[in-house]
Amino acid sequence: MAPRIRLPRFTLFTGGKECSLCEVAKQDLANLRRSIPFELDLWNIRDPPIGANEREAKKWRRLYQYDICF
C-alpha cells in the first residue's frame, strides 16, 4: 500500500464577497492550485464558519479587521 501524501493546507481570511481584494486572491489561488495541489480553507471574519469557536472567531476578526476590505 502506497503512503498517503498530505497536501499543504492554507487558510485565507476574507471579508466575504464584498472584499474585492479577497476575490482576486481567491482567483489567484485557484490558478496556482492547478499546478501545485493544496487544500484551502476560507474564513470569513464577518461570518465565521458554522461550528467555529466564538472566542477564536473574535480573535481572528480583531486581528484582521483592518487588513480586509469591508
TrEMBL record:
Domain of life: Eukaryota
Protein name: Glutaredoxin-like protein
Species, as recorded: Kwoniella pini CBS 10737
